[in-house]
Amino acid sequence: DAGKSGYEHYMLKEIQEQPRALRKCLRGRVDEIEGRVSLDLDLDRSGVDSTHLVACGTSYHAALYGAQLLRAQGIPAQTFLANEYDETCLAGERPLVVGVTQSGETADTLGALRTAQAAGAETLAVTNTIGSSAARECDHALFVRAGPEIGVAATKTFASQQTALHLLALWLGGGDVDPGHIAALRAIPEQVQSILDDDSAREVAAELADSAAYFFIGRGPQHPVALEGALKLKEISYEHAEGFAAGELKHGPLALVTPETPIIAMVTGYDERARKTVGNVKEVQARGAPVVAVTDGKADVEQYAQHVLTVPETTPEIAALLANVQLQLLAYWIARDMGRPIDKPRNLAKSVTVE
Ligand code: G6P
To answer: Per the UniProt entry, what are the Gene Ontology biological process annotations, in alphabetical order (predicted)?
Structure first.
């Protein structure tokens, strides 16, 4: 218990450690004066024509997020569940294959990386664990520097993976970054801290008790966060939770929506995506579902929501990191109110070393 520093669970301690972890992830990699991102990677970035990201679980959600950032830099990027990756995925391509793995020991991810190597692809591990199998076996390694994570449910390592992949995308894109983007990156740790200082998620969790199921929706960079928010909640509370792309609601999931199924909607910024997601929020509200809006207030979604979880204003991509922190807290307090064994959920392991 000493390792919990007074927290009831490692998970809450690790959630609270995020500002520090993210500072470490950014340290020495973002040059404010030069406006550059630099990574200590001995990789010929001019030779990278396309990328494949392979991962499992929470790391897969970070990979989905990272792929969007890579594509925004003009670098083709596809994401694969590591356990679905085989040589046919590499047909006709010579991508840089990026294994995203906290532990660096997940058998499925190591298997995918070995498949890539056997096909002659260059490999990069994005991992939290120095000396891990992934770090040793890949041609290159980028460390996310989150520090040890004990709770089975990944929290700080996800935020650190998001940030490391953000930096990787900028670096592969040439490394020159405009001052506003640099400032937004550097503000992440204190913006996360401001969310941690807010008690709203705990209050909302109490209000949502005894729901039949929980659905998370988001678009663009908030889509992987919707998936991750649902995964976190199901892992530690054992409640039924699903994440959807907001635009997919009308293609099926809407049939599940009732007054007993809260919808947790990520609506940040005020762009086309946010406006469309507000439309989705109106649809579920019309069907009586309670809405929890995770928002920076720019899209005026509050008027359609029963509950609001606030995030500070930033870029659309970083907003998806901040929203996830609110979702971590929400999952934690729902599971805590239910008395679940949060750090060691039934049937789950921190690292799955069998295929
Ligand atoms: C297990 C853990 C998850 C983790 C996944 C991938 O399922 O319970 O939290 O996301 O493995 O682990 P990795 O170490 O490869 O990121």
So the answer is: carbohydrate metabolic process; fructose 6-phosphate metabolic process; protein N-linked glycosylation; UDP-N-acetylglucosamine metabolic process
